[in-house]
Every structure is written in C-alpha cells, then in structure tokens.
Design a protein that fits this description.
Elements lengths: L1 H11 L1 H25 L12 H10 L1 H31 L3 H25 L5 H21 L3 H29 L1
C-alpha cells in the first residue's frame, strides 16, 4: 500500500493524489470495521482483571512501574521512528513514490523479522535477542552520524523495522505477566 500511495500521489499530483489515498484509507477502515464485527466473541474468563487491580499493580509495585516505563519508552520508539524516517527521507529527496517504496521495504523486512523471531526466539533467549537487536540498530545510527544520505536512511529504516519485534517482545511479554 505505501508504494501504491506513492505512485498515486506522484502521478495524480499532490492534492488529488492525497485525496485518493485518504479515500482508500477510509474504505480500508470501513472494511476493517465490517470484518471486526464478523469475528466471533471471545469467551469470558472466570476471573477477569479489574481496573482497580491493574492500577494497584502499576502504582504499588516496583515491577509494575518499571514495566510501564519500559512499555512507554518502547511505544515512543516504535511510533516516532517511522514518522521521523519519513520526514527525514522527504527532506533529503522530496518524492512520494520513493517514500512509499522505502515504507514498503520497511514493512517487508518487518514481516521477515517477525517470521524469524517466531522460529528463533524462545522464552529463555528473548532478552538476549533484544540486546542483540538494540546493538544491531546502533550500527546504521552511527553510520548516519558520519553522513546523512538517502541510502543510509533506507538501510536504517530496514534494520530498525527488522529488529522491531525483537526489541518490543520482552517488554510486551513482561507487561502481560506483571499485569
């Protein structure tokens, strides 16, 4: 979809292309709503967590506060980096088609990373893989410190998206255990 969006925006002109892309996004949101309505109901557990117990766990336990901090930092990283990469890429090369191609590369590599994660990572080595992923992401970051260019941004985006599942999984799993 990012490549198609880039093609539409580049071909149809900025305003018309963006209107078409937002129209497609609205149609996709509506289709998601319909498919969500068709999903079967999830059976209720006998003992459901209450909001009061969750807040107590978060506020009164060191583990709860620590996991909320880690989860918040992880969410900041995973939500702001793609926006930052897109803005940086556009400032270096203002072409919506290439931005779409860069996003498609990122999403494809993220799927590959998630597939490898599923088969390689087990509960005993999850943290080790997370540390490995953080170190791997640092390499293109350091490269961009010496020279900011389009290829470097594409490489950084691909490496970051590949490692994203490895970075987020320990935080998410611990979050569910603590809560």
């Amino acid at each position: 979809l990012p490549s198609i969006s880039g093609i539409l925006i580049s071909t149809c002109g900025s305003r018309t292309g963006y209107q078409i892309v937002f129209g497609i996004a609205a149609i996709l949101a509506f289709l998601c709503l319909i498919t969500n309505k068709l999903l079967p109901e999830i059976p209720k557990h006998k003992k459901e967590p209450t909001l009061k117990k969750v807040f107590k766990t978060i506020l009164c336990s060191r583990d709860g506060r620590l996991i909320m901090l880690a989860n918040g930092l992880c969410n900041c990283r995973s939500s702001t980096i793609p926006i930052f990469v897109t803005l940086l890429f556009y400032s270096l090369l203002p072409n919506e088609l290439l931005i779409g191609v860069n996003s498609t590369i990122g999403y494809t590599v993220a799927l590959l990373g998630a597939t490898i994660f599923r088969s390689a990572v087990k509960s005993g080595n999850r943290v080790k893989f997370s540390i490995w992923a953080a170190c791997v992401v640092m390499v293109p970051c350091l490269g961009l410190q010496f020279g900011l260019n389009v290829i470097g941004v594409i490489v950084f985006n691909a490496v970051h998206e590949f490692c994203n599942t490895f970075l987020a999984s320990p935080v998410l799993n611990t979050h569910f255990k603590v809560i």
